[in-house]
Amino acid sequence: MRRVPTGDFTDRESAILDALMSTFAPPSTDLSVAGTALRTALLRLAPHRLAKIRGLLGMLDGPFLPFAMSGRLRSFANLDLAGRERVLLSMADSPLAQLRTGFQVFKRVCSFIAYSATDDAGRNPLWPEIGYPGPRTDVPSTSGGLTFASPTGDIDCDVVVVGSGAGGGVAAALFAQAGHRVVVLEAGPAPTPTSTMQREADAFSSLYLESGLTATDNLSISILAGSCIGGGTTVNWCTSLHLTEKVAQQWSQASGGIDFGSSLEQHYDAVSTRLGIATTHLHNENNAALLRGARSLGWPHAEIPRNASSCGDGCGYCGFGCAYGNKRSTERTYLHDAADNGAVMIPGARVDRVIIENGHTTGVAATLTDGRPLRVRASTVVVSAGSLRSPGILRRSGVASTHLGKHLRLHP
Questions:
Q1: Quick one: the chain helix, strand, coil %, rounded to 5?
Q2: pTM value?
């Protein structure tokens, strides 16, 4: 089959995706904009997830439709609206887990894109219908002030840090401050003006892992993980909680001797100071409503400590990256500390594996966004690619452990 010129989906696959969008999306949706956004988002999925999507599209292209069809209608794309709805409802209630999962995939991604995709003017026809005014009109910050490198060949250093989020950012700063030559590799991009313009589609496509489509295999829980300079600290909601004494005791007992209590206090203090963690008494209306409700019911309540104490009126766009530079993410703090001490930061560098020779780490092998290979030679490697990506890097590196990739817990 001929490939569509703008991507990797075939014409038939694209037609089915367009039909899915027109079925799930409200009537006022700009289907041209939404369809393009849908294909773009799906193509950013990890290869094994994209393969499953293409398998589902193949099932909807004829012989495996949930009910018998014949002739030219042997494709979901050729059905009328009522027929498409019957197919999708049969998928939702199917005894086959693959079909139920497929229904959830298409329902979630089509609904999200219908309400988030914008035209060239930055508007969405559904916003007025739900009373959403769109992004604020004040001018956002355009840069965090960091300088990023574009390597043309292999690199030598003392320490290579994989990931630039809460773990990698701090590690990079401390190693650089100690006088080591540090290189930070981040699989995601550097934040751009469009990624902090308070538009959901732009933020998810440029700041989140797999454009925000990451989920458990059965789709019971969606997983939002940062994939950009600053990692999760760029897109989190600024909540900065201290480990409770009860949990610290549990961890200490389970670890067989590691002190997760008093020994960490000085580190909590240092991080709290650098991030400017404090509570705020100024709330936007949705949080103010919760506060009023708790007070009127006599329920216990407290302001949450945040690493954005100077954010003014609390605009609520924290999850899209802070357009105003008020969130003290690693991009605004620890990565600056690292850069001030000579660290080099390279976005768009996905680490494939740690290079281990004769039992010693000698660096990492990575792939740049444009497909070029990159090798960073270093005697010390810090793998801080988050709980979703670190296990894969270690496994591809030949690290063997019964615990590798296990014990992840998600809060639904």
A1: 40, 10, 45
A2: 0.88
